[in-house]
Design brief:
The chain is mainly α and 557 residues long. The chain is 54% helix and 9% strand. The chain contains 19 helices and 17 strands. The model is unreliable at 1-21 and 57-64 (pLDDT under 50). The structure holds 1-deoxymannojirimycin. Disulfide bonds join 387-417.
Length: 557
């Protein structure tokens, strides 16, 4: 009989369509009331749990894995950073503080007095600025980061000028700040590297004071930007404030000396910071230079960081070429004499000098190193800058004493460079000279042109004298240094500081240029001081000087 209750009817109707539902229904009807209540209670409980999950739990459970993931990532990152710091710390070379005594003789005292005189003037009129203009008693700005302080602090330390050193150290700790103070201008990447980074590195090695390492890393991170080129050779200029790199305004090429004279510093920064990235940049750029084809080790003075090609054909050991060759030898020493490519490239370039650039000047028979134009035409021009080569060859000879021609050439070139000083009425060398190579001509051996008659207080001959004296023990080299020092005292010393001069030929009117170059204190006075010592304070197997006279250690590899 058909049930008239609409619910049951419908239900029954549905049941007709499903035998499975019918059995379920029958089963339900057969259950005891308590059993039914129990099942209903279980169903309701499940329903509550489900609703609860939808409204709170689901949200939470959905979020949990994300939070969990994020926390895990943070933990992992921290662990990785800890590991990196540990790794960096364990890679860092340990520095041994060095103590220097007071001057030991009259000559050293005189040089230290000169340093005092120069420093006092800078301290009084230009403190915190880059350089001093000693005639106008005013500061001059170049990079905006206290160049003279950073470039010269290791000289103060070596000369045991404690008060001045402490002052300089304090300034570097509190006021050396590329963000706040550097000028918003493009400046030479090479000059900042050799003078400022070099200064920070060397004073760190001498004192072990961590503030210098910190500053070196801050600066090194900026300088690294320039290596970001298709070849890995650095661009010529950097704007420290904007952290931007650029080529020169007039060409995208860089000077050979500029791309080849930053490797000692970047490599050293990696060794003391434990961070490999600087050394990688140094190695990559050194490899690019190594892989270029050369004329008996010689190369033109311009190269493109964009494609690695040389341009022009001028070959010179003076401006724009010099320290590329210098650093070949010094990189070999810095890396424990293990990387033979550096020695091979260096000795090959000395072969190139002998074959293409080494000539006798008449009538006095002075050997000199000339230049090539268009890679083949010889020019008898020599910059004072090239006088570094004498010391550099003597240094190379000290590691391979069977190569006696290196010492012979070093002696000959030192003599010629000294004559460049001694022949002038002021006893000071001009910036550039020309030699007479024709034995039949009755002219002077050395000629100075009006535009080249200036002296910038440069160090190259003094640097070579320092090597020559300690490698030969010949006191003549100390005496030559003393003569030159006295000429500096006589013709470049001002009431306040020292000034480069315009005319070394005219002792009655040298015409001061109103500029005290930071390298006069960083290099010239430092090398003079070292030259007059009784023993070599920086043995050549343990130390190398960067091209700005900042001592850096030689490593084992
Ligand atoms: C210094 O900055 C360095 O010695 C550089 O290698 C050449 N020029 C000056 C000194 O003359």
């Amino acid at each position: 009989m058909k049930n008239t209750n609409p619910y049951i009817v419908n239900f029954d109707d549905k049941l007709h369509s499903s035998p499975y539902s019918i059995s379920l229904y029958r089963y339900w009807r057969q259950l005891h009331r308590q059993q039914r209540l129990f099942i209903i209670a279980i169903v309701l409980l499940c329903l509550f749990i489900y609703i609860g999950y939808r409204s709170h739990g689901a949200e939470k459970m959905k979020k949990l894995p994300e939070d969990y993931h994020r926390q895990e990532v943070v933990k992992e990152k921290q662990a990785w950073q800890r590991k990196k710091i540990e790794q960096i710390e364990s890679n860092k070379v340990k520095v041994q503080k060095r103590i220097f005594s007071n001057p030991i003789n009259e000559r050293q005292i005189a040089v230290r007095d000169a340093m005092r005189h120069a420093w006092k003037a800078y301290r009084t009129y230009a403190w915190g600025y880059d350089e001093l203009q000693p005639i106008s008693k005013a500061p001059s700005i170049w990079f905006g980061i206290g160049l003279t302080i950073v470039d010269c602090i290791d000289t103060l330390y070596i000369m045991n000028m404690t008060e001045e050193y402490n002052d300089a150290r304090e300034w570097i700790a509190t006021s050396f700040d590329c963000d706040a103070n550097s000028v918003d201008k493009f400046n030479s990447h090479f000059e900042i590297t050799i003078r400022i980074l070099g200064g920070l590195l060397s004073i760190y090695h001498l004192t072990g004071d961590e503030i210098f390492l910190k500053r070196a890393v801050e600066l090194g991170d900026r300088l690294l930007i320039n290596f970001n080129t298709p070849t890995g050779l650095p661009l010529a200029e950097i704007n420290l404030k904007r952290k931007a790199a650029s080529g020169y305004r007039w060409t995208s090429d860089s000077a050979l000396s500029e791309v080849g004279t930053v490797q000692l510093e970047m490599r050293d920064l990696s060794r003391i910071s434990g961070d490999q990235k600087y050394e990688n940049a140094a190695d990559k750029s050194a490899a690019v230079l190594h892989n270029q084809s050369k004329k008996d080790g010689l190369v033109p003075i311009f190269i493109s960081p964009l494609n690695g090609r040389f341009s022009g054909g001028v070959v010179s050991f003076g401006a724009r070429g010099d320290s590329y060759y210098e650093y070949l030898l010094k990189q070999w020493v810095q890396t424990g004499k293990q990387r033979s490519v550096f020695w091979d490239d260096w000795i090959e370039c000395i072969g190139g000098v002998r074959k293409h650039l080494w000539r006798l000047a008449y009538p006095e028979k002075l050997y000199f190193v000339g230049e090539l134009m268009s890679l083949s035409t010889f020019s008898p021009k020599m910059d004072h800058l090239a006088c570094f080569l004498a010391g550099n060859m003597a240094l190379g000879w000290s590691y391979q004493r069977n190569l006696t021609y290196l010492l012979d050439m070093a002696k000959d070139l030192t003599k010629t460079c000294y004559e460049m000083y001694a022949k002038q009425p002021t006893g000071l060398s001009p910036e550039i000279v020309y030699f007479n190579t024709d034995a039949q001509l009755s002219v002077e051996t050395i000629t100075v042109r009006a535009n080249d008659a200036h002296n910038l207080l440069r160090p190259e001959l003094i640097e070579s004298l320092y090597y020559m004296y300690f490698l030969t023990n010949d006191k003549m080299y100390q005496d030559w240094g003393w003569n030159i020092f006295q000429s500096f005292e006589k013709y470049t010393r001002q009431t306040d500081g020292y000034s480069s001069i315009n005319d070394v030929r005219n002792k009655d009117n040298v015409r001061p240029r109103d500029k005290m170059e930071s390298f006069f204190l960083a290099e010239t006075l430092k090398y003079l001081y070292l030259l007059f010592d009784a023993q070599n304070l920086f043995p050549y197997d343990e130390w190398i000087f960067n091209t700005e006279a900042h001592p850096l250690p030689a490593y084992k590899n």
